[in-house]
Amino acid sequence: MKIRIKGDSIRLRLSQTDVAKIGAGNAVLENTHFNDSVFSYLLESHTEPTAVKANLQGSQIRISINDNLANTWANSDQVGITSSDDVKPSILIEKDFQCLTVRTGEDESDMFQNPNTVC
Questions:
Q1: Whole-model pTM?
Q2: Please, what are the domains in the chain?
Q3: First CA to last CA across the chain, in angstroms?
Q4: Edge-to-edge strand order for the sheet containing 37-46?
């Protein structure tokens, strides 16, 4: 899982393994170490009617999506899930596609096939 933060927006991009985990109701967690500190971001599912929500707990960003929505998304061709307009920060959760150009040293074997490579 990758994260991009810009202003009041957060974008998560998930590999095939990550999408399968969240679709099955399991959480996906990433950690970034800063010497003696750890920044982490977590994607999990919830049973509340709210589609997508986020909060900050210490040095961890916790994003959660409705479990039915997560399962439907994981088992379909749907690319992304977005939060409603009233959620701050805005959230975009996407399936991560392989790049169209080869990047030396990057393993993209668990990324989704880029739809722009198929005629």
A1: 0.84
A2: 2-100 (3.30.1360)
A3: 28
A4: 28-34, 37-46, 60-66, 52-57
